[in-house]
Amino acid sequence: MSKKGEIHRINFFGGLEDTAHYTTSLKEALEKGLAMARPQRW
């Protein structure tokens, strides 16, 4: 997670731009980051 101005950028460590998520909401950034950290079930 990084922040530049009012924009929060959430991505996997070393993730490419196509997996990045941008938002101005800290709450949304937290929720998206937690969802990305959860194990994926196939």
Number of domains: 1
Give the beta-strand count. 3
Strands of the largest sheet, in order across it? 1-2-3
Distance between the termini: 25 Å
Low-confidence stretches: none
Overall geometry comes to: globular
Rg over CA atoms = 10 Å
SSE pattern: EEEH
Q: How would you state the average pLDDT, rounded? A: 93
Beta percentage is 15-25%
Give the topology.
Blueprint: E1 2-4, E2 7-10, E3 21-23, H1 26-37
Antiparallel strand pairs: 1-2, 2-3
Task: Provide a descriptive summary of the structure in words.
The chain is an alpha+beta fold. The chain has one domain. Helices cover 29% and strands 24% of the residues. The chain has one helix and three strands. Strands 1-2-3 form a three-stranded antiparallel sheet, covered by helices on one side. The protein is globular. The mean pLDDT is 93.
List the keywords.
single chain; 42 residues; alpha+beta; 3 strands; globular
Q: Brief description of this entry?
A:
This protein is an alpha+beta fold.
